[in-house]
Fold this sequence. Notes:
Elements: H1 19-26, H2 28-55, E1 58-59, E2 67-68, H3 72-79, H4 81-113, H5 119-131, H6 134-144, H7 151-158, H8 170-197, H9 202-210, H10 215-226, H11 228-243, H12 247-253, H13 273-283, H14 287-316
Antiparallel strand pairs: 1-2
Amino acid sequence: MAVIEQSPPAVAQRPSPAGPKKGWRKYWHLYAAISPFYLIFLGFGLFPVGFSLYLSFHRWDGLGSMEWAGLSQYQYLLTDSDFWNSIGNTIIIWALATFPMILLAMVLAVMLNSAVRFKSWYRVAYFLPNVTSVVAIAIVFGSIFSTNNGVVNAVLQGVGIDQIAWLNTPWGIKVTIAALMTWQWTGYNAIIFLAGLQTIPSELYEAARVDGANPFQTFFRITLPLLRPTLLFVLVVSTVTGLQSFSEPQVLLQTSSNDSTFAGGPGHSGQTMVLYFFQQTFDNNDFGYGAAVAWGIFLVVVLFSIINWRLVQRRGD
């Protein structure tokens, strides 16, 4: 009779406590290679954010000692008429610039996506305004919308319309800033929309032609629904950049008023939220209240981004 030898059951070995240490020692050079990024992010990213939050609860002129203020900065912010005026100016300018910009960008993207010659040249031409210096663009637009010698008023006079003081009236200032931002960002958004259009399968358009769909039906039934993620991206990015506009009104209006550089033109009609932040922080040397204003701006931008996202998502459902 054969004898079957049975080996004793294997006993699970407990992991050595030195395992993690060995892993750390094994890959320490990889951690060291990526550590500069985290150190820079900590020093120039997280620390300023944390310090601004800490600063918003203090009064500080930038030189002396800090004085604890508690929530008084935020309480004053909620009742500050100038801050609410800057919010209203920013929202109006954003609306005047964003919706025409998205519409024009989508039209340009559809045209570029069709069979046209010199596509690459058009793409470069449309993208150039976005990489051009904002200061140069603002100076040019200041000349175009000048009251006495501007091209816009010359055209209006040619058709029998009186001159408009674009840079000296509340709505004229807002329209001028919005026109500048529209011209600057339309080409960039057109390239983004074009990238989204090129992800749509061409078979869908061929099937639509076979079914007898006209271009409008094709656009609203195929292109627009499939372009919704790209539209959401463009809308959110446009909201974030538009609500944080600074250079455009600051350069465009700094020569049209005798007030502060960050006043936003006559009557503060073009003073955006970020301009108001700079005015409080650097003109008034009130760094504590300026930090509170910055956090107020952050909440406004987040709120509008969430609203835009929910609206686009709801329409998609």
